[in-house]
Amino acid sequence: MRFRALLVAFLALCLGVLTACSDAPSAVVNRNELTYDEILNTGLANKCPQISEFTRGTLPVERGQSYVVTDLCLEPQEYFVKEEPANKREAAVFVPGKLLTRDTTSLEQITATLSVGNDGVLTFKEEEGIDFQPITVQLPGGERVPFFFTIKGFTGKTEAGFTSLNSSTDFEGGFKVPSYRGAGFLDPKGRGVTTGYDNAVALPASADSQDFERANVKATELGKGTMSLQITKVDGSTGEFAGVFESVQPSDTDLGAKDAVDVKVRGTFYGRLEASA
């Protein structure tokens, strides 16, 4: 028995040494230093770049000038869904949701413009990039809520008086939320916006009933969301900045068949500021 215990302890020690000396990365700040095989199936591709916690610099900007934001990346980390209470006298609250989507939630490679007004108001406008991701979260009761996480067309502004990007810079504004489903999508009854049946053909006697009108008449509605970007870290030597964001946007409506609910997303973001060419 004593020999067996010593053998188990020896094997545990060997496994510990092998794990410590393994080439698999556990926490990496710069993904550019890794190969494809080192990133594959680790979840690191979904992580935004990071800046040191001790970085508290500034990025000077001149009034009347325009700048370019490159490599903008938003990494969602918390999800909440607004639920109406059973008692109408109580206010609706945001309930935490569990992420069901795999590691494909971040928005990245986004380009934006930053303009400085004569009054010192900074205007941030999203232009293009991988600026949308379909995500599904599950509520404590089991209900699943799909939504189209995006920052399309985001236009955020600061208060007046800014001469630089610093840890006190906050952008607030709105953005567009495209339909979760495309116009060519068919529901289980074969109904769609541009293709498929125009009613539930399995019920020929009541297919055009008003009870089914909302489910029959499909629509790819454009929603609206709001977002705040709060810069907390700036590296003046590299032009990098990072911080936290919070957005509130509508969920999927199943092509208009159901009401949307508000989804709140919180996370971190990263970007680089460059002078406009």
TrEMBL record:
Bilayer-spanning residue ranges: none
GO molecular function, one term: oxygen evolving activity
SUPFAM superfamilies, per database record: OMPA-like (SSF56925)
Keyword annotations from UniProtKB, A to Z: Membrane, Photosynthesis, Photosystem II, Signal, Thylakoid
Membrane topology according to the record: Peripheral membrane protein
GO terms under cellular component: photosystem II oxygen evolving complex; plasma membrane-derived thylakoid membrane
Keyword Signal attributed: yes
Keyword Ligase: no
Function: One of the extrinsic, lumenal subunits of photosystem II (PSII), which stabilize and protect the oxygen-evolving complex. PSII is a light-driven water plastoquinone oxidoreductase, using light energy to abstract electrons from H(2)O, generating a proton gradient subsequently used for ATP formation. Required for dimerization of PSII and for binding of PsbQ to PSII.
Name of the featured protein: Photosystem II extrinsic protein O
Annotated source species: Pannus brasiliensis CCIBt3594
Organismal lineage: Bacteria, Bacillati, Cyanobacteriota, Cyanophyceae, Oscillatoriophycideae
